[in-house]
Amino acid sequence: MPGPAIDPGPREFLFAEQAASPALPVLKQAMLHYDDGEFAERLLWRAHSLDRECLHVYFALYKFFFYGKQFDAAERIVRTGLAIAAQRGGFSERIDQLTPRSADWSSVHGAQHFFLFSLKALAFIRLRQGDREDCDRILAKLRELDADDSVGGSVIGELARADAM
Fold this sequence. Notes:
Blueprint: H1 16-19, H2 23-32, H3 37-50, H4 55-67, H5 71-89, H6 111-128, H7 132-145, H8 153-164
């Protein structure tokens, strides 16, 4: 049975310190073998073992598990990626402590953009897990931090509204 599609993430996540990550060639291999879910998953975990700080690895892992409907695993991975991005960006990983001044949220070339994108993913995961209240809380914070909707959080909001009907 084919596995979920694997995407290493938007190019803007690839900032200087990750451009030479030894995990990236392994992620590319995983993308080439997405039709073999077990093999692709092994490659993703291999990439993770090569560079536990590479945000691309977390992006690919949480998408892999989300599309495979393994929402608990996807949530654990996205939360770890959020923590790494917060540490790298110099802001709190606690969503309730973040403000529009916590980071330059408008920049698409750094850890803060990955954080916003992953926050959107977390909202979608929580929606699929049936926790509409937590999804709404995350989306409210995302609207506060990403007023220009650069990561498309409004799309998840529309899905949440449609899901409530």
